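Teaching assistant here, posting this on the class forum so everyone can see the example we discussed in section. The complex has three components, and the goal was to see what a joint structure prediction looks like when all of them are supplied at once.
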Amino acid sequence: MAFSVPVFELKQVSQQFGQFSALRNISLQIYPGERVALVGSSGAGKSTLLRLLNGSVRSTRGEVWAMGRNLSQLNSKRLRQIQQQIGTIYQQLNLVDNLRVIHNVNAGHLGRWSFFKALASLMVPLEVETAVKALSQVGIAEKLYERTDRLSGGQQQRVAIARVLVQNPLVILADEPIASLDPELSREIMDLLQNLAEQADRTLVVSLHDVDFARSHCDRMIGLRQGQILFDAAPHQVSPDLIADLYRLESH
Amino acid sequence: MTVITPALKWGLIGLAAIVLSLLQAGLFRQDLFNLNGVPLLWRFIVASVHPDLSTELLQTTFSATVTTLAYAVCGTFFSVILGMIGGVLASEVWWLSFGQPSRCWLLIRAAIAVPRAIHELIWGLFFVNIWGLDPLTAIVAIAIPFGAITAKVFSEILDETPRTPLLILLNSGVSPLTAFFYSLLPQAFLNLLSYVFYRFECSIRSAAVLGIIGAGGLGYEIFLSLQSLRYEQLWTFFYALFILNGLVDLSSAWLRRRLGCSSRIDLNLQQNKSKTPQKAAQNYFILIPIALFLLTLCFWYINPDFSKFWAPRTQQLFGQFVRSALPPDFSGVPQLIPQAIETVSMSVLAIAFSAFGGLLLAFPAANNFFLPGGLLNQQGNGSLPQIMFLLSRAVLLICRAIPAPIWALVVLFVMFPGILPGAIALGLHNLGILGRLMAEVIENQDQRPLAALKAQGAPNSLIFLYGVLPLTMPRFLAYSLYRWEVCMRETVIVGLVGAGGLGRSLTEQLSSFDYQALIVTLGGFLMLTFLVDWVSANARRSLR
Amino acid sequence: MKKILFSGFLFLSLLSLGACSSTTSPDAAKPVTQKTFTTGAIPDQDPEKLQRLYSKLSKYLEAELKVPVAYKPVTDYTAAVTAFKVGDLDMVWFGGLTGVQARLQVPGAEAIAQRDIDSQFHSLFIANKKSGIQPIQNLKDLTTLKGHSFTFGSESSTSGRLMPQYFLQQAGVKLEGDFKGQAGFSKNHDATIELVTAGTYDAGVVNEQVWQKRLKEGKIDLNQVEVIWRSPAFFDYHWVMNPSVKERFGADFPQRVQATLMKLDPNVPDQKEILELFGAAKFVPTKNENYATIEQVGRAIGKIK
């Protein structure tokens, strides 16, 4: 695996938001099929890292490469082509909540669909079978025509995952997908993500608060603290001391 | 496969209403356009580039502008006072805090629906019959309907404010009045204040409209110069009106931002309203004296004759008016029915026109969309979006600054009298208001779902289709329905200048001093207004 | 930013202070004192012209009557009647119809004077030359207007609406359906001339005196617009006096005003100008009874209830 081309490569990347530096001089490579957990306290830079990876923000310094392309040098059309291969699941779900579930799931097609096909599908939903398949995979097939904002938080998270399934990307990014769920649901969602990644040999990068889930569901852990990489190792190599270090309260 | 949802049902009803209204307006059947009037319209447009800037006219313009501003300030002052009293009395929670689950609030809410349904201009025409053209007429004509609207909105805000703190105070034995003032009012204060600013913006527009009945100010001067066909002067007044409206809107927006209330009116569509106020206490400290100073200045400038409230002559003229209006003369009712249908059609066409136009202009006019750094232009290139931004904002300002009856007179250059010119005039005026409200919806829109679509590689057009449109549309429609109610009330005032519908009857009855028939027409108009309010409220509920 | 706004307010307030003290602010904002004799007029022509005419007349009346006289403009005919009823206006130059409407609402109000021309007043039907409407000889031929667009003056105008509507009715022309589009209301005679000249409306009807005067001033382009018919004569404009002036200025005040108006002399240059602006050789006395026909027609058309 280590011999193939990396899916993501960060070369000395720093990210500033005004005065605040979210990431400092990060270099790392992520290879196809890896399941990477990003761990660290709030504000450590996990979300920023994910947003750099999916091309939502451009790095202040350094280069972000995805699938062999330098993201900052792509025009918007080429960037979109890369982005179609990256599916992202967010903590706040970020669904269009007054559309019906099917449309939110079908939104996974938007990188490929023409304008008129998308418009037509809003009137009479198209590719319903794909959507049903995706929704059954996440276990809520019966919610197809429900309005999204009528669903519970856990169900909405499944809709978001179904959307990524429909998008059928090479990489799945997930930003704290279980932050607002109870332990039982959290396990189900994490199992789901792990299965999805394993089934199609997809790469998974997931940021997590919960170190236990990181250990049980991923094969690589990257610890971030104050915008810098504290450790980058296989779960069994990450000692409790390292974790304690990661969450250690900082006195500035 | 589609399911007939309530929203879809209302959509179809709306579409049918628009088509029927177009037929009613005589599309494809009658001569609507009067192309012979084009040269005159051209003269009018050409005059915009060389307004009359003589010293004398500028002096007139200046004092007219101050008069209009003063009417608006004084009118708002009284409507807020009326609104506060009425709003508290019409709120369920007020009666609740006295421990009597009475239905009084419902009665009061029903009672304030009547003054609310009658347009300022009609109130103005009524008070002219009693007080003449005293500034008092203009102020009270604004204060009564606006007071009632404010009361309704205030009562709704109060009832929607969380009650737990109030109940805790009540349960710990605090007297109801104290509990009310210590819990509910502070909680609701920002929303109330935000609405007051919005009312003030509306008052400026109303003060201009009232000029048409001779109450002075910019509307009066505009009306006179339009009658004399002196377009160069007209444009001077127009520019003054644009500047006045623009300044008021800007300063009101700025103040609201300072105080931490983001949107003008919140139509029950739970939005995150109050952002943290910046140094609020310090702001009030500066603002209150300024407001008081401005208020005193305005009262002093227009100098309304308050003694007229209790003058015996007022009673006498009021009595005379009432006697001349009784008993109502119902003989004209058969004529009223087709006119009532025309009026509703006019309001439907007007709102369809302004919703469509507002939709087109709102996106370029929003500051977070096409502009560099905005959602659909993150690369930040191009001066075109900047130009579009300024242009669309200017168009919206011009549309809403010019009163609907003045628009009607302009449209009548190139159209025959009828409901279509009235609808276009109302549509133009409301477009300016609606587009502005829509732009605000876009600016306050949660960006995260859109960013999510963008991150998976969806092109801009599809982000618009699957994100922006579904997220903003319910609010757009809610605002449009709300403006439809306003349009319905305003059909009267374009009717006064010859644009058809019940307004035309009203004009004839006014000029014949036939108050017995007038009162029947007004009654019919009230019923129509309530009908439209009811339909709109139902449609809005289905959008939530 | 705060500072800018604050100084803005301050600036605005200072300016308005200035505007107020320099007395350039218009009459509308100031209440008229009890002892001012307030005149008004129906806005039948260009409001600017009215303003000029009535300021001259006010000056003359003030000098002759030795009381302060003010002219207060209004926006439409109905407003003139209302203002007269409420007491905002003491003496108003009304048209035939509005004068009757006003007197019916103010018991004791008197018609005191009119111009020499007002007892034999005429309406002129005018048409744009391109419309193809030919001049006609008698009333019955008004049917030639059918199928053309047509505009009246004000809703309450005697020469621009009431009598013309009456004549049209006699000729069998219906307001609804016989014209192209709905009949318009231009609001005043100058606007009617302008709209028909421009072709906005094919035809219209105006007050003969305004037409003659504009013709003399060279304001009318006879290549564009022509008179197609002169109506039979009727009583029109007159001064109506509110009885309340007797309390304030003495019981003989109406007579004094009447005499002052009669006294206008074409041989005195200043007074000649006033008469010319009115389009009259002199003023003559009149009385309420002269307008009985107008009242009848008004009731028949529905403008008087």
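For the discussion questions: Chain B touches chain C through 65 residues (CB under 8 Å). Chain B has two domains: 67-325, 343-544. Think about how each of these relates to the inputs above.
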